[in-house]
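Appendix B. One record, verbatim.
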Amino acid sequence: MRVFPRLLALCCAVVSAHSMAVPLADLYKVREPVASQQPAEREEALRKAFDTLVLRLTGNSSSDQQAVAPLRSDPQQLVSRYAYEGDAVVVSFDPVTTERALRSAGLPLWGAERPSILTWWLGETADGSQLVGDAQEGSSDLRAAAQHRGLPLRLPLADLSEQLVATSDAITAKDPQALRDVSERYDADGLLAVMAKQSGESWEADWRLWLGDKQTQGKANGDTRVALADEVMLAVTTFLAPQYRVKPGDRSEITLEVLGADVERFAELDRLLEPFGAQLQQVASDRLVYRLNASPEQLRAQLALARLQEVAPDEIDPQSTDTAGANSGVEPDGDLSAGNAEAQPDAAQILEEPGTLAIDRFPSADQGTLLRYRW
């Protein structure tokens, strides 16, 4: 069976209602301040831009990684273009060339699909406190800091009802339940609460992050509110990156079965599994089966972005799996990876018409590690 154009159009155009993870735009574009446009100043700015990019992709500073020293000494080999904008130079690194070079150097990389972080930022000055909301004063500084550190940031509206809830007590509380209640409308993956205070000419902050069953906290300081925001976002990136980055060679073969899929979820799952080179092997009713190479823990962290729930082996009914195979009688036609659309099954039609079976059987446990998830 062959995929028809409608599936490809759906996968490219759909924005899944179930999706919380965000493909970060301009991941390979870095903005660095410069004092002038002199060659020496430009070369230093390119090295700083490379450092920023490596930290976005790995969670570690490039200066601590000897493997990338040759790249850092000559980052221009990875740059597709640069341009001056005001007092800054905007550097666009070539994604393919850069990723290949960093993986060849043995670095584990974090892809563009990242958890969205809803940030409750309460600032206190001598004039009082202010909750930073979307499109309000201070929001541009937070967005710039988040982009600089590679984080998909969301901000609340900060309307009157939210201002009444997001008090200093709620922002600094160990239990985030009060913030969780008013955060439901934003459907973000993570929750970041920041209490920022101006102390003389400088700023300091206490922050807490909750993401799934993980949480962390810390302190930050900066000479300005902009510098403080950058320090907070840097700390968040450093915490998150190890959970999602994929190390070359640190992978095993995995068969992934996902239950409860539909067309929108198919598109979302395709994006989430892209860093692992996933190949769609089988489609039947609302089941999708993939083969991929990944670390099981990294794959689990990635699937958590879509709120997928892992299914324990004792929860699977073997008879239902066997029945799907017995009722099908349709053989898979060659490689069913996303890169081989000519050989893919008519997945969209199958997912739109429950009960239509396209594959003769599901994978056995000897096909690498077997993981099952459901929506």
